[in-house]
Amino acid sequence: MLLTLCAFVAGLVFGIGILVSQMASPAKVLGFLDLAGRWDPSLALVMAGAVAVGLPAFGWARKRSTTLLGAPMRLPRSAAIDRRLLGGALLFGVGWGLAGFCPGPAVVASGGGQPKAVVFVLAMLAGMLLFEFIERTRMAPPRALSQDPATTPK
Which residues of the chain have pLDDT under 50? Predict the structure, then answer.
């Protein structure tokens, strides 16, 4: 129950922050990404604030094996920069630039009834399902070819 309450409060604070910073507004986000036009640097301050909070928190979390609520700490172990990471980052950036949403703000905006955000979230969920399907297929052990005992040479 406490874990659920903490998750709810964290999500609520995140959602309020997204709304206050206007990151749920595609026009605001696209203005930030328009470096050659009428660039709006205000979201850079939001991101800098997030990094300023996140860096010490992740540094502290790396030293722990459990969360404050007793759940196991599950932080990424790999620091490798490979094709999959770069491809995912590229896909994320293109999607962010085209739609003006990234996942968190899109969920907040869809909760506010923005039709474009709802379409984005549905497309994001479809992409996640496709990724899971591809990963499971890729990681599945190869199937043995069935052999008919009558035709197998001895």
Answer: none
